[in-house]
Each structure stands twice: as C-alpha cells, then as structure tokens.
Specification:
Blueprint lengths: L1 H15 L3 H20 L7 E8 L2 E8 L27 H9 L2 E7 L2 E9 L1
Helix pairs in contact: 1-2, 2-3
Length: 121
Amino acid sequence: MLAGVFTMLDEFSEEQGLTPDVSFPITMAVEELFTNMVKYNAGGGTIEIRCDGAPGRVEVRLLDNDSEPFDVTEDRQVDTTAPLNERVPGGLGLHLVQRMMDEFHYDHTDRVTDIRIVKYR
C-alpha cells in the first residue's frame, strides 16, 4: 500500500519537475500522514491522496472518508532539545510535518478528515 503511494508521489514529482528540496519533504509528510491515517482508521473507510501542482506551489490533500476528528495541525509541544531518555514518545512525526510544510491545514466534516499540505517551489 505504501509502496503505491511512493510510486504515485515519484511520478507526480517527475511530471512536475520538482527538485529534491520540494519533493523530499512532501514525500516525508505524506508518508507520516498516510501511515497515521491507516493506523487510526477505525472506520475502515478509503483514504484518497490528491496532488496538484500550480505555479509556485505544490498541494497534496489526504482524505480519510470514515474517521474520527483529530486535528493534526495542533502544536504537539515536542521538545527536540531534551535528552532522548527524557523525551515523551509520540508527536515527533507531526511536529516534523508542521516544520517542513509551508502550509498545513485540517478539516473534519461528516466523518471525513481532509488534510491539505502545501510546499512552495
């Protein structure tokens, strides 16, 4: 399943002529968001990924069509300066997504989670 996501993102990046400084953070962010959606997809609904390239920006939307609300854009207060043995597990992946993307949006309506990430070119 994840291999298919990577293939789709690689093909999209090639079609759009994305440089690694744009394509790599997008791939990392989509991997984190997609795996979280799969892991917590209690409803078993489908997950859609839509990619759109526009002048100056790339937008990716992930839609989980049967999900509980969970605002991924909420600041998780991850202390990246603390020693490893003092860190609290969890939240680092979303923290990284927040830092890598230029825009990070979340909406949940009628059991549909809609996450939109934007990276400027």
